[in-house]
Amino acid sequence: MQSNNDELIQMGNLLKKVRLSKMLTQEELAKLSNISQATIVKYENGLRSISKKSDKVLSEVLGVDSFIKHLDEKNWQILIDLKKYQCINNFSREELSKQLDIEISLLNKFLIKSRPLSKNAVQKITQLLTNDGKEILMDIKQDDGSFKLPIVDKIAMGGRIQEIRKNRGESLEKFGKNFTRPAGKNVVTRWEKGINIPDIERLMNVAYLGKVTVPYLLYGDTFSKMLKNGNKVSKFEKLDPFRMGLRLRKIRRDYRLEREDFGKFFSPPITKWSMDRYENGKDIPNTDRIIQYAYIGKVSLEFLIYGI
After folding, report:
1. DSSP letters spanning 2-34
2. Eight-state DSSP code of residue 197
3. What's the mean per-residue pLDDT of the chain?
4. In this predicted model, what pLDDT tens digit does every residue of 169-187 receive, in sequence order?
5. Band of the pLDDT at 273, cuts 50, 70, 90?
6. Which residue did the predictor score with more confidence, 301 or 25?
7. Of 27-31, 42-46, 152-156, where does the model show the most confidence?
8. What is the C-alpha to C-alpha distance for residues 177 and 51, in angstroms, rounded to an integer?
9. Which of 65, 126, 196, 265 is deepest in the core (most CB within 10 A)?
10. CA-to-CA separations, 6 to 49, 97, 131, in angstroms, rounded
11. How far apart, in whole angstroms, are the C-alpha atoms of residue 89 and residue 297?
12. Which one has a higher pLDDT value, 36 or 141?
């Protein structure tokens, strides 16, 4: 792959630059590192990848951190993206193994980092994520491969809320009294002007009143159907943080992941400490995270919020 060739050239150029800065010839570096001069020539010309063993020796001799560290970090990011792919598609390890055409025993070693990714494995994973991965997160998958929600245009969102209120023929004050936690006139005004975004409980209320979805309120028509359809809400109920926490915990456990690993699927990532508070009903995720929970868990907001 061209990208691999580019990486080898960059790595070789860095080695050459550091060697020259130390005023060493290739022959002198070969003697100091006990690596053949022919091998060092191949490294510097981008014809051969520096092994971890050689990297350790060369780094010590030349007094640098590492020549291949950025490659290890890139490969780790590939594994993170692969785990996202598995999580979103709810694939078992066996199914993922078939998708990649990599033996499951070898795949397991890659995923637990007991064995470094081979060039062949990197190519297979990259191809899978490039081809099939385009459909993983619809249009909410960003250019860098991360999971991010569409940006909320607060002014447009406020316009949609205002339209719902006016279609109901209600004043700001009357409209605010419809919610499980009534909102004052000034609060509704700030929503409609795009100054504030309602919390998830009140967004559910607004969506119910307007017979639309929460994603529509936040992002407009393009993403109105990004979440699974849920059962219709017959009446407003107050959000129960404890019971919702149990549902959040079930989503994570369905993927057989610990809090720290599961939190990496979110953007921005959720810390283990925050996830613990969510799952134990001590805190409520913000609106962005609630949407991501529903999307990753393939559940409706109605189920996530109310359990219906």
Report:
1. HHHHHHHHHHHHHHHHHHHHTT--HHHHHHHHT
2. -
3. 80
4. 999 999 999 888 888 899 9
5. very high
6. 25
7. 27-31
8. 67
9. 265
10. 11, 28, 22
11. 10
12. 36
Phi, psi for residue 147 in degrees, rounded to 5: -95, 110
The reply to whether CATH 1.10.357 applies to domain 71-136 is no
> In which band, very low, low, confident or very high, does the pLDDT at 233 lie, cut at 50, 70 and 90?
low
SS3 sequence, 203-259? HHHHHHHHCCCHHHHHHCHHHCCCCCCCCCCCCCCCCCHHHHHHHHHHHHHHCCCCH
Q: Are 133 and 96 in contact (CB under 8 A)?
A: no
Q: Domain extents for the chain?
A: 2-67, 71-136, 154-223, 241-306
Greatest pairwise CA separation for the chain in angstroms: 86
Whole-model pTM? 0.50
**Do 266 and 289 form a contact (C-beta atoms < 8 A)?**
yes
* Peptide bond preceding 241 in cis form (omega within 30 of 0): no
- The token duo for 291 is 């949407």
Tell me the fold of 241-306: 434 Repressor (Amino-terminal Domain) (1.10.260)
Mean pLDDT of 61-89: 73
Pseudo-torsion of CA 136, 140, 142, 145, nearest 10°?
-30
- Say if domain 2-67 classifies as CATH 1.20.1290.10: no
Q: What is the chain's alpha carbon radius of gyration, rounded to the nearest angstrom? A: 26
For 67, counting Cβ atoms within 10 Å of its Cβ (0-12 exposed, 13-18 middle, 19+ buried), the class is buried
Q: Determine the topology of domain 154-223 in CATH.
A: 434 Repressor (Amino-terminal Domain) (1.10.260)
Report the distance separating Cα 287 and Cα 249, nearest Å.
Answer: 17
